[in-house]
Design brief:
alpha+beta; Arc Repressor Mutant, subunit A; 12 strands; 229 residues; Jelly Rolls; four-stranded antiparallel sheet
């Protein structure tokens, strides 16, 4: 991958200098996983940071025999950084929600690069603060009705990873169990709300291509009452 394409895909590297990008790409390893494959195992020690080139993954935590999705990530995002920054075992695992292509950068090289490039270091801090703010937004929404919370999740995913089409903003047709988990509502509520949104024409599901189109992003954003930090 060329350095220009790399920086365009990943917001983390928007301000990184060309030498930093060339160094990281020289040691990056490409991975491809099918839908359902576990990419990272919980409790394994962090030895790399992973970047999502294409496809979708979910970050989940296991509670005995039950698994709960904590986050859904798409093209341009990254994961695995926490385990290498605090040098501890991973507290979650990551599973491919679709066919996914990743790039991994060895932990030691990534840490070295962070300290060598102040712009990258600063950008990393900005994005981690952004994730904390998103977590705070989820907490603020807990008292809101399920429909508001689910609309917020859909709009957030579309804004972060969606692709603009003639029909609207397109994202993965995420399993309702995972949507329910990251929204902190029940699967039953998720199913009912999605059926209502579909009947209104605000969302359109393509089962063949496993895509979900937010056909009326304006109304969904209004419903979401998006809290901005």
């Amino acid at each position: 991958m060329q350095t220009k394409a790399f920086s365009e895909i990943f917001p983390l590297f928007n301000t990184a200098n060309s030498q930093t990008l060339e160094l990281l790409l020289s040691v990056a390893v490409e991975h491809e996983y099918p839908t359902g494959r576990v990419v990272l195992m919980e409790d394994s020690w962090g030895n790399a940071v992973y970047f999502v080139v294409s496809g979708w993954v979910k970050v989940r935590r296991l509670y005995g025999e039950n698994a709960v999705a904590l986050a859904i990530l798409g093209r341009g995002d990254f994961f695995g950084e926490m385990a290498i920054l605090d040098e501890s075992p991973r507290s979650t695992d990551v599973v491919a929600l679709s066919k996914v292509k990743l790039l991994s950068v060895p932990a030691q090289r990534f840490i070295q690069t962070l300290f060598k490039d102040p712009q990258l270091h600063h950008r990393m801090l900005q994005l981690m603060v952004r994730r904390l703010r998103q977590s705070n937004i989820r907490l603020q929404l807990r008292r809101q009705p399920p429909a508001v919370r689910l609309a917020n999740t859909l709009v957030s995913l579309a804004q972060s990873y969606g692709q603009s089409t003639e029909q609207g903003m397109e994202i993965l047709n995420i399993p309702y169990k995972d949507l329910a988990d990251v929204t902190d509502i029940s699967v039953e509520d998720t199913t009912k709300i999605m059926e209502k949104l579909s009947s209104k024409g605000w969302v359109k599901i393509d089962q063949e291509y496993q895509t979900l189109c937010l056909a009326n992003i304006k109304q969904l954003t209004h419903l979401a009452r998006v809290v901005r930090g």
